[in-house]
Amino acid sequence: MKLGLNLGYWGAGNDARNLALALEADRLGFSVVWAAEAYGSDSPTVLAWVGALTERVDLGAAVMQIPARTPAMTAMTAATLDTLSGGRFRLGLGVSGPQVSEGWHGVRFDKPLGRTREYVDIVRSALRRERVRYDGKHYQLPLPDGPGKALALTVHPVRAEIPLYLAAVGPKNLELTGEIADGWLAIFYSPEHSGESLTSLRAGQERAGRRQAAMDIAVTMPIVVGDDVAAAADPVRGYCALYVGGMGSREQNFYNALAVRMGFEQAAAEIQHRYLSRDYAGAAAAVPQEFIDATSLLGPVERIADRMQALADSGVTTVSLAPYAGTLEEGVETMRGAVAALERAGLAE
User: Fold this and answer.
1) What value does the mean pLDDT take over residues 211-219?
2) pTM of this prediction?
3) Which of 170, 245, 270, 332 has the most neighbouring CB atoms within 10 Å?
4) E strands along the chain, which residues?
């Protein structure tokens, strides 16, 4: 199992610290550094900056939003980043949610599965440097009633294929991920509650006749190293409350629905009610310790090693750390603690 680092969103006041952590990930031999985007910083710009200052670590978009770019623009960006970095780019895609898709990008959040499938088809065709022609329900290239012509990408990516990941939460999206993607970007993953998600993922792989071992299951895990497990959970509460309570509406929140499927229905409802009522402290307090512990790496190195073993046993191949530490020095020590835990579990490659 490999280690990654998830920088989250740029511009949140911790940019210098995040850059230093990315450089430490490169020195420690981490597999990948991921950057995210929502409606603030974009991920490709951050990754270009990180890539220019690192030598070995892969650069992962987690994610580039599908409604934010045409498939051709995504292929152009992926090819450019892969070329600039010497073949270190990983393309993660996600449909985002209706609030961001429609409110920020002005793109209807309709038929996300079909749109994703066509989007991936076009991106891969462009990255193969084919003349892109596509006649789909959501995308038509070239447009049939104008002067446009089929074009081919002029940039030569370093690799024949750039790894393509999908961020997926719901069962149908997980099936699609298993069917068409090289990797799954997972959030709030728990070995004890992963059965339904993995069943959906495997169903998609089987439908496409793909080998299970060929897919990178990359999970983002908050990590806090310390002797007191309950105290270690406290810094993660706000993050859990934001996603379970505030990422979406009362009617449609994919992370809330995931918590419900994991067995936390009552708590998920309470977190959402408090968060949408702007009682953010109350929402954080309502997150069960069991939920945080199940979806994070908390406690001393020995305990984290045991959790890493459980992750590996469930099929996880990359653990992307989100260190919750007060200072840069603590963040670096957290990353080093994760390396020690991986080695203790006998999982280091």
Assistant:
1) 86
2) 0.96
3) 245
4) 2-6, 32-35, 58-61, 64-65, 89-94, 134-135, 140-141, 164-167, 183-187, 216-225, 297-299, 318-323
